[in-house]
């Protein structure tokens, strides 16, 4: 299991503003790798992504999207499609790269908010990935609330081993050790 990066950080907030040409140029290569050759090309992909960033940054529901960005249902469906294709998580990974271009870093807050919204579609695997790359703002919850399946299984295995070793003499169970392992198990199960 890879170790968490040492450059874990939270992204500072930024008020929404339309993307500049440099910011769009920083996003475009990631968008091309995701949607290359699939379906009809969008008339104005930049404007659509801008609308997605606007909704993600504000935290408002899709129906509040201004009409100049397109129909809210269509933009929402396109957002979910991009989420399933891995676009938002790919952008989070690109923002986490120390060599990320300055224009991409400038819109990191929008990318992070879009990724958090995409986790409704992607589930906890995306949250674990966001923690792994070190951008904690992209996670839907604080890291302490996440379940750590690998470590949870390790603790569960240790408890099972103790119970198997004392199967014939249950009164000789090391209750102090067992309590400690249960505490560790609860920790790696995540907080509700």
UniProtKB/TrEMBL annotation:
Pfam family, one: DUF4096
Sequence ranges assigned to domain Insertion element IS402-like in this UniProt record: 19-91
Superkingdom field: Bacteria
InterPro entries xrefs: IS402-like_dom (IPR025161), Transposase_6_like (IPR052909)
Signal peptide: none
Protein name: Transposase
Chain coiled-coil ranges: none
